[in-house]
Specification:
By secondary structure, the protein is of the alpha+beta class. It has 2 domains: about 120 residues, Beta Barrel (Thrombin, subunit H), CATH 2.40.10; about 100 residues, Thrombin, subunit H, CATH 2.40.10.10. It contains 4 helices and 14 strands. Strands 1, 8, 9, 10, 11, 12, 13 and 14 form an 8-stranded mixed sheet that branches. A hairpin with a 7-residue loop joins strand 5 and strand 6. The longest helix is centred in the N-terminal third of the chain and has 17 residues. The radius of gyration is 20 Å and the shape is globular.
């Protein structure tokens, strides 16, 4: 009996030594703890589409005024081209029976300075063809922080990842920004559980304010990469430039 117990203990030790682990505070990509809700539970969020058809979302957007929504530049222009302001995308919101057309009015320089995307400039403001009525919805508030104050902020992320049913919204309530400040053009890191389709979604702080926009995601929860850091692979664009542009629009 003692021999059997020793053999089992030795077997467990061998297994644990052969399993690489992810760096960071938690292995969020090996445990999918996201929650699913009805879209109407999060009325300020919506999905973006290239056509007015309720098919797989192109990305996520959020309401920032009665007539404007925010998202990521690359959701509207996924190729390395400059936005012209004539592009039309469609916002699927639970507050309307049909999608609402929208066009870009202000945007960052995500593709204009380099052949690679600038994460800190990957933002766009779009104007809706139909504004929401006064009191119909409360737009999300945009909160600017210095880059140093964005470190280790508790977050919530909601959006429309491609691995979930698009008629619902998927929420990660337990994540935060990274422990380091990256160079200015690299945006900020976070460990929210993201997938393609989350791009353009807002990162929300504990006061329900938008502090950044999702621009890059890990992709898979069950993939283990030696030396991988979730703080680096998950990127977000600080909300400051979008907040300044929205102030100019609303003046």
């Amino acid at each position: 009996m003692k021999t059997l117990v020793l053999i089992l203990l030795l077997f467990q030790l061998i297994l644990s030594s052969c399993s690489p682990s992810l760096r960071g505070p938690a292995n969020i990509f090996t445990k999918d703890d996201r929650e699913t809700f009805e879209r109407i539970d999060y009325p300020q969020w919506g999905s973006l589409h290239q056509r007015p058809i309720r098919e797989k979302p192109w990305g996520t957007a959020f309401i920032i005024s009665r007539c404007h929504i925010g998202s990521a530049y690359h959701v509207v222009k996924p190729t390395q081209l400059e936005i012209k302001g004539t592009e039309t995308v469609y916002f699927d919101t639970p507050l309307r029976d049909k999608m609402v057309a929208a066009k870009p009015v202000k945007w960052g320089k995500a593709w204009q300075s380099t052949k690679q995307s600038l994460d800190s400039e990957d933002w766009v403001i779009l104007k809706l063809n139909e504004c929401f009525l006064e009191g119909e919805v409360e737009p999300l508030l945009l909160k600017k922080y210095s880059r140093e104050l964005l470190i280790n902020r508790p977050l919530m992320l909601a959006g429309f990842p491609e691995d979930r049913i698009p008629k619902n919204i998927t929420v990660d309530r337990d994540c935060k920004t990274g422990p380091n400040v990256f160079k200015k053009d690299l945006g900020i890191g976070h460990n929210c559980a993201t997938r393609p389709g989350n791009s353009g979604g807002p990162l929300i702080n504990s006061q329900n304010e938008v502090i950044a926009i999702v621009v890059a995601s890990r992709g898979y929860f069950d993939e283990i990469i030696v030396g991988y850091s979730d703080w680096i692979s998950n990127k977000a664009c600080p909300i400051g430039p979008m907040a300044d542009a929205l102030d100019d629009i609303l003046e």
